[in-house]
Amino acid sequence: MSSQLPKPPPVPTESSAIRIPPHNFEAEQALLGAILLSNRAYERVSEFLRPEHFADPVHGRIFATCGKLIERGQMANPVTLKTYFESDGGLAEIGGISYLAQLANAVVSVINAEDYGKLIFDLHLRRELIGLGEDMVNNAFAADLDSSANDQIGAAEAKLYDLATTGQTEGGFESFNAVLVGAVAAAEAAHKRQGKLSGVPTGLVDIDSKLGGLHESDLLILAGRPSMGKTALATNIAFNAASAYREELDTLGRKKAVDGAITAFFSLEMSAEQLATRILAEQAEIASHKIRQGELSNDEFERLVIAAQNLHKLPLFIDDTPALSISAVRTRARRLKRQHGLGLIVIDYLQLLRGSGTSSDNRVQEVSEITRGLKALAKELSVPVIALSQLSRAVESREDKRPQLSDLRESGSIEQDADVVMFVFREQYYLERAEPGRRPDEAEDKFNDRHARWQERCEEVWNTAEVIVAKQRHGPVGTVRLSFRGEFTKFGNLATAGHYEEPGF
Question: Which domain of life is it from (predicted)?
Answer without folding.
Answer: Bacteria
